[in-house]
């Protein structure tokens, strides 16, 4: 009897252990995150996005697959010839689902702001006024949740740059923020290992800022 | 020992399993049997799956064994599930076709009569921002709608006139609840404005006919204003105008927000500075207090409360034709209160419930010469609706409503007072049937009962829309519409029957990115119009003996991509309307229905100057009026109305806007009709005075400053 109990208890521990770090999940995620880097076409983006959705279906307690599926939708709205509003709405839907799994997550909040930023870019004349505060608020919240989140800082710098351009003021504030974002990215890089599956993107945005800010 | 063996065996089994793989392949098609790429095909609960290629085919391997669920999934399509058995033998699955779901994003909408202003991605006619940036509107909601097809500008009235109908035929709703006396009270040819600030609303729905069975008590038009949801941030807004100013404060959190606004306006100093055509004793002045609050409840429903109270007044001398001196002295005082609350919740099972109640109370205290007239109207509107989506193809919207309307008017000195109270009950149901995403039918029925005239009525309505090409659609709408008679007639004759109208509208809409073309033809009949003896100022014996019609076409074209940074729209409306109503004994063209109406609005952004220049030009072919020196009624027409307005908005900082606008820049002397003496003069001629503009031009200068605690900046400083 005692033995059965022990096996039972052990098997429970084992299940818990699996949940804490599931190598199959990590492996599947790593594979798709690598695939993300090489996306050139809408079809490829759709393939990777679908793979993340499959992982999410099988692992409904994980927010990361939905995060990446949302990110891919936002990027495809910027990169490919798709119905931008539809893609961004879809992204917001994934983010909403992910937020229910992981409330108060800085990365998800920043990504939501990124999607709102995308919506503004579709029709800046009409949406700018009403949606800019929403995007800025989300980036602010993301930074408050995690001061070391380089993406939240870089995205906010991007919004600041857009506003500075619109109002004809200098990019100093935006550049200052972008530098902070770049520093945070460098700091983040030190943590990255083979099996690191949390978001690490942002380098391209940081490099663009370097160019813009050097000119001034 | 035994258990150890068992575990070893299990270990091997798992590993054996890893080597037995099943290959699954197949093809996905759409409804037309064309290949469907991008579909996610996977085994439920596993990572195994694939995405269909350009030719719709897919193939993948799985290590799973036994019975499993195979899912086909694509955004915007109805998912399909199949049971498969994996036993290492390749599975060549049958062709599967997915059906596209009909959603708000891809389905045709009924556009007959309808014009939507919203931030939504669909081709909308007007954006919310257009309302504040149309120069001729001067920040008034109605002013912006007067540049849209189907409306006519009546410059000495200011209200909305639609397709040969008078202003009382337009029903105004906030969140589906009726607003009583939505316009400010005015006198002596001074145009009125809507009481409500455009900033309160996130979108508007304006219909010039053939609208949903949800809207009653509106013969010609429904204007539905949708209030804003929870504010994104706390802020203060200060506005300073050449006519007054106000302050608005918003407190916001994730779950709720509240905005409190106060304004004071006084046109007196401005009117002293710039010459006026009206002989003012005391220029129009007002104060108002407004509160709007939104709360997201724990169960996901949204609760909104809005309340407004205001007081306004003016004193003026109205010159009388054929008489010496300043004329009649008018002293008007108005008190107005509006309050409403509503609650809405969308349930998982396809039901959306809405319930709300609104209260409007308007008091006018007028001295006309030395006679003190007092008028008071109150309206209560309670509503409960349920929308049920049975599937993506069938949905129904049904509801019940109650109206209580109280009206009283009296002359204080004579101790005369008359009043009435009316209780009205309504029920409506409306069904949408999507035969495909390109074809929709809508049928609706609205029934009502009034306790005052003891009438019960039914208004059937129907419409359909068909998408003819990717960007174009046609729709047809028709139905009957009923409205109780105006309150100043009902108080004289409580038995007055409903005024009725029948609409038939054919609409063509083309909407591509940055370009909208809309053409509409309509026919509208009127029955039971109220006619009376005497003059409009003092009607006697009102009865339902009038009839009439209105027919015409509208054209609207909007373009925002042709010229860089320029957005413009052009409108032309032709209305042929004749009706026997009011004091007229024959069918005449109403004064408020000019035949040819044209307007153009253009906005150009100067990026380097951080400015936007706005221009609007309106014209029509003149207003009909009766010249008693000639035979007949409505026997003359004023000269053409023309007005050019310009505005300039400057945004030096994200939180500061400076706005300057001038109406009728060219100073044209527009005339909206003539006022004639009651009796002829010594030489047998009826003398007249033109009813013109309050002033040749109207100038507005405003500075709008937004103050908010920049939380984002604070956060950055802490980094």
From TrEMBL, chain A:
Residues 1-20 form the signal peptide. Keywords: Signal. Gene3D superfamilies: Tetratricopeptide repeat domain (1.25.40.10). This is Tetratricopeptide repeat-containing protein.
TrEMBL record, chain B:
This is TonB-dependent Receptor Plug Domain. It comes from the Bacteria. InterPro entries: Beta-barrel_TonB_sf, CarboxyPept-like_regulatory, Plug_dom. The keyword Transcription regulation does not apply. Residues 139-217 form the TonB-dependent receptor plug domain. GO terms for cellular component: cell outer membrane. It is found in: Cell outer membrane. Keywords: Cell outer membrane, Membrane, Receptor. It comes from Algoriphagus zhangzhouensis. Its main location: membrane.
